[in-house]
Amino acid sequence: MTKRTFEGATRAAERSIRATPIDLDLFRNWFPDMPDYVLIDFIYKNYAHRPERARELIPYYSRRRFSFGEVLVTPALFTPRTRERLRARTDGELTGFRDDARKHAAQRARLERAGPPKEPLILRARPDGMDLVEGWHRTIQGLQLWPEGYRQPAWVELPKREDDG
């Protein structure tokens, strides 16, 4: 993903946020080292109406960093826990997600039309693989369309190194 495409994806995510009582700049102050895409697509979308919960995440994310790159999305990329959740959601065992069927249909149509996703996943590196943080619908549909795998941009959450400061 080029810098221009990434900036476009960040602006698109920012535009998609509904009006909330908390200013995005407050979240930028709380998470100064977090890339805008991750901040908007994960933290802000999920916690703008519950800022007290977002504040609880500050100590954790102060010890984390993010790396941007491209990953080969296959089931083997993920932790056993994420693989099980992907399987359960695909099979309909995990339910209760808001607008789930509509979101799956929209992602499926988008992927069939445009090919593998350009919008980054948000992943968390673990010793046994990657946890999928954001991007569930496009990952499930992508793996159904390309079971042998496909390449996709991703922000990967990692522990801070000692020299990260």
Task: Give an overview of the whole structure.
By secondary structure, the protein is an alpha+beta fold. It has 2 domains: 60 residues, no CATH class; 94 residues, Conserved hypothetical protein from pyrococcus furiosus pfu- 392566-001, ParB domain. Helices cover 48% and strands 19% of the residues. It has 8 helices and 4 strands, in the order H-H-H-H-H-E-H-H-E-E-H-E. Strands 1-4-2-3 form a 4-stranded mixed sheet. A hairpin with a 2-residue loop joins strand 2 and strand 3. Helix 7 packs across helix 8. It is globular. The two termini are 28 Å apart. The mean pLDDT is 85.
Structure class:
alpha+beta
* Relevant CATH superfamily of the largest domain: Conserved hypothetical protein from pyrococcus furiosus pfu- 392566-001, ParB domain
Biggest β-sheet: count, sense, barrel? 4 strands, mixed
How many discrete domains? 2
Number of helical stretches of at least 4 residues:
8
Mean pLDDT: 85
CATH architecture of the largest domain: Alpha-Beta Complex
In the CATH scheme, the class of the largest domain would be Alpha Beta
Tell me the series of helices and strands, N- to C-terminal.
Answer: HHHHHEHHEEHE
The shape is: globular
User: What topology, given as strand order, has the largest sheet?
Assistant: 1-4-2-3
The name of the CATH topology of the largest domain is Conserved hypothetical protein from pyrococcus furiosus pfu- 392566-001, ParB domain
What's the N-to-C terminus distance? 28 Å
Radius of gyration: 16 Å
Stretches where pLDDT is under 50 for at least 5 consecutive residues are none
The quaternary state of the protein chains shown equals single chain
